[in-house]
Amino acid sequence: MTTAIPLTTRKDWTSDQEVRWCPGCGDYSILAAVQMLMPDLGVRRESTVFLSGIGCAARFPYYMNTYGLHSIHGRAPAIATGLATTRPDLDVWVVTGDGDALSIGGNHLIHALRRNVKMTILMFNNQIYGLTKGQYSPTSEVSKVTKSTPFGSVDQPFNPISLALGAEATFVARTHDMDRAHMQETFRRAHDHKGAAFVEVYQNCNVFNDGAFAEITGRDVRASMLIPLVHGEPIRFGAEQERGVVQRPDGQLEIVNVADVGEDALLVHHEAQADPGLAFALSRLANGPHEPTPIGVFRAVERPEYGEEMSRQIVRAQEQRGVGDLEALLRSGSTWTVD
Amino acid sequence: MATGTKHVTEQLGRVVIRFAGDSGDGMQLTGDRFTTSSALLGNDLATFPDFPAEIRAPAGTLAGVSAFQVHISDHDITTPGDAPNVLVAMNPAALKSNIGLLPKGATLVVNADEFEERNLAKAGYATNPLTDDSLAAFTVYEVPMTSLTQEVCKEAGIKPRDAERSKNFFALGLVSWLYTRPIDPTLKWITQRFGNSGPVAEANTRAFRAGYHFGETAELFTSNYEVRAAPFEPGEYAQVTGNQALAWGLLTAARLAGLSLFLGSYPITPASDILHELSRRKEFGVRTFQAEDEIAGVGAALGAAFGGSLGVTTTSGPGLDLKSETIGLAISLELPLIVVDVQRGGPSTGLPTKTEQADLLHAMYGRHGEAPLPIIAAKTPSHCFDVAIEAVRLAVTYRTPVILLSDGYLANGAEPWRLPDLSAMVPIDPGFASEPNDVAEDGASSFQPYIRDPETLARPWAPPGVPGLEHRIGGLEKADETGNVSYDGQNHETMVRWRAAKIAGIAKVIPAIEVDGEDDAELLVLGWGSTFGAINAGVARARARGRKVAQAHLDNLNPFPLNLGEVLHRYPKVLVPEMNLGQLSKMVRAEFLVDAKSLNKTQGVPFLAGEIEDAIIELLEGEA
Questions:
Q1: Inter-chain contact B251–A329, Cβ cutoff 8 Å?
Q2: pLDDT tens digits for B177-198?
Q3: Domain spanning B515-622 has what CATH number?
Q4: HSE, side-chain direction, 13 A CA sphere, residue A205
Q5: What is the pLDDT of residues B551-579, one digit of tens each?
Q6: Is the ipTM of this complex over 0.95?
Q7: Which chain A residues are within 8 Å of B302, Cβ to Cβ?
Q8: Hey, what domains does chain A have and what are their CATH numbers?
Q9: Does A275 touch chain B (CB under 8 A)?
Q10: B354 in the Ramachandran plot: left (φ > 0), alpha (ψ -120 to 50) or beta?
Q11: pTM of the model
Q12: Which of B39, B76, B163, B212 has its CA 20 to 30 A from that of B543?
């Protein structure tokens, strides 16, 4: 029996637990964006699960009035894989951070992406370890001075979008905590995607890494520093849409003044392209959140979903062999009878 | 037909045969086929596959020797035999690495073709043992198996190099004749496995028949032997290995519980065959997930359990190390989860293909914090079926991870198994939560995920999908009843004690340990796991020498059966044989203040019955 999905408001999706992030944390605006989006997604609370690992972001499930599981460091995509493949009726969200997803849990993240397991992964990237009080993270810039790197970090950071694309992800997007509408649109697209969707959310940690994204997400700079990716549209930005992206003859992407090259020369964004090459090039356009940075959906392609394929094999086996018969199974080798 | 000597067929009560050859010689398959024929004849049997970790060590070297020992008898036996009566050695290396196991007077059947200079040198023989009299204590049959196989295949146009690969079937044919095994099951099996025609089926069939006829016609053997059927309980029997029985037990348990089975696993010796077996059985609705690592295997299983499936992960020692954190989470979440550890020699990579029982204390204590869980162990290959069902029953009833201990010997060893009556098995009730279990102060009904069942102390299992039961749980300490995050010290102690009491309470529903032997026995031998067979045989021998010995075997390692303390204190002496340095003995000494003596072996092979027997006698006479 199916019944109509009840109308809900943000309040219905908000749990009775007190939110305990630091005042001013970017996580608040992401939580609000999600709680306000849920009534519009056409889903049921009881069929929604928020799953997380460890870190500040990982407290997220406690604040959603849905089913929730706060697990262990880095393992949420693995745990979500077991849940999503056995319960295709559920909406499974994984909320994670740059440390959780890219350090301790890097292996699970890439494999969940390549398998295309049905889950929506929101990775809050604040380029710092917050919960352990301020060590550098795998997305921190080189030379980052933190408690664990008093002389500056020496390791090259991950580019999460490049990583996801390299991991054969079918949906890869970026948004940021200062723009609720953009977050909601990106989350909606991610939710509606068939398979694993990866969303990097630039999120400000006002205690340990304040202003990490201010150069690109601040209201006054946003127009000139964020490059919105819109499917089927030329890639351009700036207060007057005066700048844009072109592909040079050698294949490299370049930011140009539209006036210099003409509108027709601009690269048209095509998120569904089978080859991830251009999406990858777009992910490399900025060397960090201080240069013009693309946001929006980098890639959205269709590929069979892992759990669905798993179920299909079961259905096929049952069609061919009939539903498993235990009595026959025990006799599948040689048997003999003693009278 | 037979033109040679008329053979006499002699009766034997039992015989232990060891097939040994190069890893590429197909010795496991040869032993396995011989075992099946013997099972179909109605013999009791026990097998011991003994192979190296290397897939193919350099041919002809000692490192590459693979062996399969099978014990067949006309009476009840429980071990693969202390010493082989017959050794089939396919090359000098196989002879050299196995000859030490043979008692004087044993029979040796060697592939004479391989005893040439190069192979002798590779095995480290300065002189040819077939000619230097060093084998004088044995009855040696030299059979040119390689060339005879090539010869018989030549007629079918099979090249000598291809034919050479079938020489193990020649050996199988020869030994089948020597022990009057039926040939039809093997011929039928060759057809099933390799098809009706084609060079491989042809070569194997020809080699097998040639070996059989060689025994019959060559004037080498004066007699052959018959080992008659053992008196089994009436019923239908199959031959199973431990891993197979375990996989089937999981399928059966899932059916009994009405749950879908989800296996999250990462390939590891000697547990992989459980993954393989379940992967073949998709028609049972089983989902098998070959994870990116051991951690993901157990993580996915736990995720499936959260969703209301029967979550299982299978591994061996190194994998259990990696899964520890997730098992701790499962203890905290109080969700059903089955963790199968097919033990092997450790620490670290250790001895991947060799057996050991050294993970007991890891299973018991290998997690941070107070993290108790039930532990259950299999004692024979077919017993793996029963303990798999029992593990699921405990996990589901008590909402807890359960560690099931098997080992490499059980995993690969085979025995006849009387098929159980599935219809008589008791269903397992998952008892999913379906409605709110609490009323708030304002009169509204609510769901509290940590309100416990007063009898089992288990919390509700409430998979997503039910309106009104939405709840959040996690690895942070939870407030009693509500499950909300709580850092309160008093509450933590309450929860620590709840979790401990829940697991301890399982003792109420597990069977009392049974003792085989008289109350006035001088000594009790207490065992667990795969030492069962050797202990049984060792105790029987000690009794035959006039000693009063009692025997008891533990399936439940945590919690212990309620009567274990009383049983241990009933006897003046207690001996605990284990393939480790004394783990169960440590546990019973700590729990019951009993002066249990430990008998240890960590050589990668099971105890011999004689070793148990000697230890019993020594302990009894030591203070006499």
A1: yes
A2: 999 999 999 999 999 999 887 8
A3: 3.40.50.920
A4: 23
A5: 999 999 999 999 999 999 999 999 999 99
A6: yes
A7: 71, 79, 82
A8: 10-233+269-313 (3.40.50.970), 236-267 (no CATH)
A9: no
A10: beta
A11: 0.95
A12: B39
